[in-house]
């Protein structure tokens, strides 16, 4: 199920229960197309996420912590100016469409009451978030500015007259009294065809919703009115579930065809889990595109170098043959005549079998023998050099693959640390200098913190610099260190010298999840005291060695990790 009109209907019911009557206490815009409005309601701060993302547009209460940019955007400043301390008085949906209007009651500079509407339009690449003054229908600001050149029907810029998106000639399934679905059922008895016709006739039905509705109508054709009412009543008391099929999907109602899934207490909690990886990956791809490109190019270059070195090493396999040929020529030099181009001699290394040896007719027999010994020595030296280069180059490839894995697992807030590391390793240009021509110091972000069931603090480094800082400097020598075995991943520290078995298991779940094998069913995790961790001199960031560890196997579980976010 997508975030279509019927899902929007269900989400609005949830938001009304938790937010109506609350006041705006904080406004931030952590990402270009997403704004978070913290509303104080029922003695609790509720972070309302409004996303105008082209792929993940949605409205929900989120418990995922976001970091704010140092400089607020113009849209953020406008929202703060007009909405801070304002009261949320209504949340409405426009005709079962993917449009939600949040109505606020604020006061203007003169202290007079002023109604304002924050409208979220969830329409794919046309998604937008607008602040509108309903008294004069003027747009105060939008998260995306749309000029008349981009859209002739309506401009979405500050000062423009607000116009709703063009209405579709469809019926609202929650208020329709025409019973048009009955004629559609008789005209299109095939379930799949009926689903498409329902989608064309009724507002707010995406593909899965219309198919679920068609399935419900087919299940009881004798009581169509009851089936219709029962289907849409479900969205007033949703059962939030992430469904397991060919691919993960979410739903606000039970799905008869996909019985396996994970249930949640609220739609917002479900969306937090569903979009956590999807949205983060998208943001990392956008914000870290330069880092991704640099690492990808360096990997390509080093892998190409590795192939060339392996080819060179293969060419040196003839070194022993050259030595034998030189020794045979030296032994039987008296048989070698000047000017011949080859000679067959008995090979005393192979039961006196004849060996044909090419010769140069331009040089003497003794110089021919010396030529073979020189080639042998050159290839022998090359083998030593090439093996050393292969080892060094493989280490570089392993390091770059670890950086690549870090970026894949990263959250947007982790990218600055990775950028610093790439600069330190000479893979990126050094950061800009300040007026005194000194490098601008950038403070590393702190590792993520989680809490075990018994309250024990567990820290997770999200990149190599954090890992080094956490393991070699922050952690006590008696703390317990964990890491996914022999694969790129986070350093995890249990801040306790003697944690319980349950705490070790919970920390191992973190180590497994924040590793390259996040999607695996069983991930081996090593754990050992920090005092037994060593970092070799000159080694790459994040690289450590250890002996005497214990190991356990873990199936990564995101739900358990989410529960450990805050105690």
Automatic annotation (TrEMBL):
One biological process term in Gene Ontology: rescue of stalled ribosome
Keywords carried by this UniProt record: Protein biosynthesis, RNA-binding, rRNA-binding, tRNA-binding
Domain of life of the source: Bacteria
GO molecular function terms attached to this record: ribosomal large subunit binding; rRNA binding; tRNA binding
Domain named NFACT RNA-binding: residues: 450-538
InterPro entries recorded: NFACT_RNA-bd, RQC_Subunit_NEMF, RqcH_bacterial
Pfam families attached to this UniProt entry: NFACT-R_1, NFACT_N
Gene Ontology CC: one annotated term: RQC complex
Keyword Protein biosynthesis (UniProt): yes
Membership in a protein family: Belongs to the NEMF family.
PANTHER family, alphabetized: NUCLEAR EXPORT MEDIATOR FACTOR NEMF, RIBOSOME QUALITY CONTROL COMPLEX SUBUNIT NEMF
Main function: Key component of the ribosome quality control system (RQC), a ribosome-associated complex that mediates the extraction of incompletely synthesized nascent chains from stalled ribosomes and their subsequent degradation. RqcH recruits Ala-charged tRNA, and with RqcP directs the elongation of stalled nascent chains on 50S ribosomal subunits, leading to non-templated C-terminal alanine extensions (Ala tail). The Ala tail promotes nascent chain degradation. May add between 1 and at least 8 Ala residues. Binds to stalled 50S ribosomal subunits.
Summary of subunit composition and partner proteins: Associates with stalled 50S ribosomal subunits. Binds to RqcP.
Protein name, per record: Rqc2 homolog RqcH
Species this chain originates from: Dellaglioa algida
Lineage: Bacteria, Bacillati, Bacillota, Bacilli, Lactobacillales
